[in-house]
Fold these 2 entries.
Entry 1:
Amino acid sequence: MCGIFGYLGSNQQAGSLILDGLKTLEYRGYDSWGVAIKKNDGSLYIEKHIGKIGSASLPSFPAHVGIGHTRWATHGGVRNENAHPHTDCTKKIAIVHNGIVENFETIKSDLNKKGHTFKSETDSEVIAHLIEEIYKTEPNKVKVMQKLRSHITGLNAVITFFPEDESFYIIKNGSPIVIGEGDNEFYIASDASAIIPHTKKVYFLEDNEMVELSKKGVSLFDTKGVHQNITYTTLTYAAESTEKGSFDHFMLKEISEQPKILRNIGETQKTEIKKAADEISSSYGTYLIGCGTASYACLAGTYLFSKIAHRHVNFAIGSEFSYLLDFLKENSLVFALSQSGETIDIISSVKKAKEKKAQLLSLTNSQGSSLYRMSDHNLLLHAGPEKAVASTKAYTAKISFLYLIAHQLAGTFEKGKINLLKAVDEISQIIQNKSSIQSLAAKMKDYKSIFILGRGVSYAAALESALKIKEVSYIHAEGFAAGELKHGVIALIEKGTPVILFNPEDETYEDTLSAAHEVSARGAHVIGVSSKNDKVYDTFIEVKNCGNATIIPNVVIAQLLGYFLALAKGLDPDKPRNLAKSVTVK
Ligand code: M6R
């Protein structure tokens, strides 16, 4: 969703620095962008555009302070006027905003009556005018911000820039904001990955905190405006891990990183995995929650915990969980999975679970993220920054953790590790031979629909595989439980319909093979993914048996298929239409 990058310091090229910061945040998804920069001659320079930043540059002028924003449209269409930053009537205040001001219409009509004129259709612009109005009678800017906060409703992060004294005021309730302190310079961003090339010393704002940032330094205030000590966090990942390197796309880079990441999990995370297993063991009941890809990892988790550890865990989609938490008790455990740790549907549900005093264990890829900070116990994926919108390495890392936690619960960690390492070898093979998947994609690119079938944990893998294919290639792809075929799905099969079948040699093998025959008899083109070939398959992709970890290489095949389908269709796999990397707005 929207990205924010601000700078105050001694670098006289603030414009290009801010633009570069915004480019780092491009992966979040956006449809317009803008900057407000105070020139050294004292004037405020504002530039806004619809579309991507691409190779755009700003006119070169000396400047050392400003703010930029990438907008993902919610209120008001994709128009220059709706892009941020927004200014008040006097142009002495510029704001950027992430979130939704739920009561903006009421505020706007009040401000209209007071003579304010609006240039955009956004909820965000009312903030600039409201600040202008409050500032007329309240000279203390900290108090202005407190009043602003009491007027607006919804989950919001607002950065207010006062060019006159080069100060920023940041309030946050919901959308993430992080500030970074370098050598006599300060950064503000919606995501730490934009700050990491400059400094690793960061502070993640908590909900309802306020930060004043000026040449004098950083001041932190609590809800009541009382000054607080600021304790910085040191980020641990390297700046180069946020770059594409020699790869054409982040998606391919991230797919290719999986063997190393998964091997590392197997070899170094035993202690953390044991702690998580102990939490689950001592809980009254465990609820796995996640959204999108993370939800499919959770669903796979229910099968893995059942099969390997003989333990029932509940599962809910993050956005549905708040309607399902009636049974939570003080010693219930909510196990939340989220790559970003910022997904609003998870955060909102988890807040409600915490009100019921449930314990929160999270598995995220973002140290310091909102979910990370809210959790009683944390596990980190250690997958490195994931920038492609389609989640790949974070998914397989999540499955690896769940798989090993299940084995730890069963007292068979070492067996799990051996299978995970087998899966790692399989993934390496698949990546090495990816040209065969590229050829398959070339043949499949004009298909209208692709179906993916599996049973047991392979059903969860089928759902994730379908999501991967549809979100980057825009081909309608659906995952089904193979046993559901005769209950309706088979009506969709006609001559030539591609059906990918996950058929590992486990307890599901024979029944899944029957499904292959059923769709084949109706003319489907059957693509069998298995350790054992069968004449019913029109195309066979061999994946060696790695026990229940076989779903990991199986999904990697779908990741590559999605990637190559996108390329074959001339699409950018890193930035699928309408999607944002981190969903921070409901
Ligand atoms: O950051 P999260 O893991 O919480 O994100 C959840 C989903 O938004 C995310 O997995 C989404 O479904 C991806 N686009 C899938 O590739």
Note: The radius of gyration is 25 Å.
Entry 2:
Amino acid sequence: MAQSDKTAKLSFGDTELELPMYSPSAGPDVIDIRKLYAQGNVFTYDPGFTSTASCDSTITFIDGDKGELLHRGYPIDQLAAKSHFLEVCYLLLYGELPTAEQLEDFEGRVTNHTMLHEQMMNFFRGFRRDAHPMAVMVGVVGAMSAFYHDSTDIGDPWQREVASIRLIAKMPTIAAWAYKYSVGQPFVYPRNDLDYASNFLRMCFSVPAEDYVVDPILSRAMDRIFTLHADHEQNASTSTVRLASSSGANPFACIAAGIACLWGPAHGGANQACLEMLREIGTPDRIPEFIARAKDKNDPFRLMGFGHRVYKNFDPRAKVMKESADEVLDLLGIENNPTLQVAKELERVALEDPYFAEKKLYPNVDFYSGIILDAMGFPTSMFTPIFAVARTVGWISQWKEQISDPQLRIGRPRQLYQGATTRDYVDVENR
Ligand code: ACO
């Protein structure tokens, strides 16, 4: 924990408090309110945690006004251009870029854990064929704690390490099998001579009757999607993982909780919702109608893929994703795809509209990732599972950091209670 170098004065009624403040290595100063209740008998009120730091962390930093995202200090655009997903995983997990030997060792360890316990196949088969792959992932990842008992003791650093590697290694297999099950095709086993992204694409698109030969441009685009989604500091799903973990829950249960949270359309579900919205718009001439709806206070409709809680500037991941979208569509020869035309025109119109400019609503990473995944042949229902595959390393890194923190306490927010005060029970015949 950073040392207190200044204080904040808080006065209310007859009470005057001096609260410690900390200066982070980047970002705004933080007021330490941990003793506020004990010393002042008040709580703070911050639904949505817009002004509350829930932990101290050294993993990821976002400057939303500048549109900057750093992993262990390295800008995301440099990582997307020069690095690759497994190297970024190493960086997030262990804090530094690996040497060549460390990377080889890490890749070997991940590769050795890509297969699932054979009995887990029966677990998949228990779901309905039309189950959403995210529902299957929540269930299967939660069930990992029933299959891998030897890595559930969170007090043992070795077991924590094994659980981390298992989750990163097995998540593509789980997502691919959820997909295969939904389309009625046989499960495809991982192949350890392929890189992480190529292996995932092959497990999704290969069938026993015809192998899937992975195009390096598609594999690179998939790897970039994984890299760009790897971590995003204390977002809703990561905070969910941390809150679940604060009770001492095992890593598989915590990551299952993160997947459940990611599923929501305001978070990881936005890429699916965005592509569905682009299809619903259908043709560029209908864009004004949807822009008008997004601006109408009486209409709950929002432009999916626009806006972000933290970025009040262009999402730096969206810039890289846009380049990738151009590369993939060029390779597949589908520049004239109607959904893409709607997306490009919608982006242009929204960025010129004063409503979106004033509210600092820019396209986010999900605006472009859906277009790429659609072009690769993924159904919209697979968009969020792919996000979950990528984010697993972020969840795991944050979980490991939290577990090793000697100050760890169970997460237990307070509330502003607005309900009835004490009243006596009334028997049913007298109500
Ligand atoms: N379309 C239209 N108006 C919007 C949008 C949008 N996409 N997003 C925000 N606004 C408006 C709100 O109506 C609100 O207007 P008001 O101040 O007049 O009431 C203002 O902008 C601020 O919105 P909030 O909901 O307070 O912003 P918040 O930070 O809580 O929400 C969120 C961020 C959830 C991402 C929001 O922008 C949204 O719903 N976007 C669409 C869903 C989406 O793309 N999510 C992906 C996020 S990225 C990720 O998870 C990887």
Note: The chain has a mean pLDDT of 93.
